[in-house]
Amino acid sequence: MEDKFGQQSKLDFENLLDETSHTLRSTFVSRHKRFDALQKLHWGAHVRERLDLAGQIKDFIFEEKLWIQSKVCSAVCVIVEGIPDENKTKHLNLAV
């Protein structure tokens, strides 16, 4: 009878230990997956912010380039207007 209770007690203890360790493992795995997902979202946000910033910088540089081109064109037009018509081709090296 004592052997039967001893075996039953040992079996109950092993089952309890298996259940507890399974619960702990599954909790750990699920929390780990959630943490990984949050990390991916966090890093994804940083990547999106950097891409956004890169796009803004690109747009700014493009606008600056257009502004500089317009100023250069305005300056060239002023210079060209000051050159007499017969000399424009010679000074600008333009083939008519």
UniProtKB/TrEMBL annotation:
Record-given protein name: Uncharacterized protein
Organism: Ameca splendens
Organism phylogeny: Eukaryota, Metazoa, Chordata, Craniata, Vertebrata
